[in-house]
């Protein structure tokens, strides 16, 4: 495929910046930083445009916080104006990258997502379960994926696809931050190291829109290797979660060794001890579900979090902190999720226990 050329002016084009602003403000339009930017919208967009034209743009200061679903992650959030720049980049170059990805890569792509990924894997399981052989799955678990992406390798991949020096300058600004370390040493969690012990040469911030794009591009190298070199038919990926099906357990062990070697040598990534080979009749944990050929269930940990959240909103409603419409919106969202797995018993239990009441005397 031809390299991307002369696209940088399209990124700082005023109309693209305005559309990027609209994307960045979705579901956030009443936040104080968004309102402040919007008051002088045209002037602020022109200021960003000039910074990009004259290459004086500097990435803003990250705000750090932790989230705990599905596991503890360090999130780094940029100021609103920087999120507009991220959207301006993403709108122009991600569609080009997306056309190069394999069909069975499902993360952060239009028309894909967790439910489509679960549907695809279950379709394969139904198909292979009708065959006479015993089938197995290999589940790959990459250690601290976002925190271990190598900057030199990532920039090398981008240079293979982009021939626009100005765009590469901007992407390098985002990847190789002078003020913020994104990376972690091998084998440690974000809360186990001080800021000083984080690494400059690896890692991309969880929270950036461009990080999703970079992460997909980075493991597209693995996708292409597995599909074209290893000739794997039943291969599916959702970001750094990979499932491979095969009827020969020994072959899967050989595949695991080949993939591990590829990840170590070509991408400087490592598998962790959660990587496993098991029979498909045990059910496969993938994209928040445990999936069998005949049915799927929500992972126990996810179901417990859902119940805990529902218990919290009941208490919040009783205290008068949230409205009935807010409660209803949350519950309808959960019921929507339940349509994608075998949820009769879970839904029945939730509905039986879900009684809303206001506590006018104070909630205990």
TrEMBL record:
InterPro entries: DNA/RNA_pol_sf, GrpII_Intron_Splice-Mob/Def, RT_dom. Pfam families: RVT_1 (PF00078). PROSITE patterns: RT_POL. CDD domains: RT_G2_intron. Residues 1-291 form the Reverse transcriptase domain. This is RNA-dependent DNA polymerase.
